[in-house]
Write a structure and sequence with these properties.
single chain; 132 residues; alpha+beta; 2 helices; 9 strands; 16% helix
C-alpha cells in the first residue's frame, strides 16, 4: 500500500479511535480483514471517513506492542489489538475519542505524509513501525 495523507494525524490501531458502529462501517466498506458482506471489494489500504482519507494495513504478526521510530530513533511504543496499524487525520476522529488517540497512539503533524506499508513495515514520512 502506498498513498499520501494530509494534516495532523493519529498513527496507531484504528479500532481505538472509532466507535463500535464506525469500526463496523469501516469493516463493511473496506472488507479490510474479510469481514464485509461484499467479498468482491478489493481493499487497497485506504478508505474515507467523514470526508478524510485514511489508510490501514495489517501488522506482520497481529496484536502486540510495537516500537515507533522517528528518523531511526525509538520515541514510544504503541499497542495493537485489531492486528492493524493505520494513519487517520484527527478531523476524522470524534471528539470523545481524541483523548484515546493521544494516549494510545502517536500524533504526527508533517503536512503531506507519504504512507507505505509492506510486509509488516509501516512508513509514515519520518516515522517507521516495524512489526516483523
Amino acid at each position: 500500500m502506498e498513498t499520501v495523507i494530509d494534516g495532523l494525524c493519529y498513527i496507531g490501531d484504528p479500532c481505538y479511535v472509532f466507535s463500535h458502529d464506525e469500526w463496523d462501517e469501516i469493516m463493511e466498506k473496506t472488507n479490510v480483514f474479510g469481514y464485509g458482506r461484499n467479498k468482491k471489494i478489493n481493499f487497497n489500504g485506504t478508505f474515507t471517513m467523514y470526508g478524510d482519507k485514511c489508510a490501514v494495513s495489517s501488522t506482520a504478526y497481529g496484536d502486540g506492542e510495537y516500537q515507533v521510530k522517528v528518523n531511526g530513533v525509538r520515541v514510544t511504543t504503541i499497542g495493537v489489538d485489531s492486528g492493524s496499524i493505520g494513519i487517520i487525520p484527527l478531523t476524522a476522529i470524534s471528539r470523545d475519542k481524541l483523548e484515546d488517540a493521544v494516549r494510545l497512539g502517536f500524533i504526527i503533524d508533517q503536512g503531506f505524509i507519504p504512507v507505505e506499508a509492506e510486509n509488516g513495515v509501516f512508513r509514515f514520512g519520518k516515522v517507521t513501525i516495524d512489526t516483523r
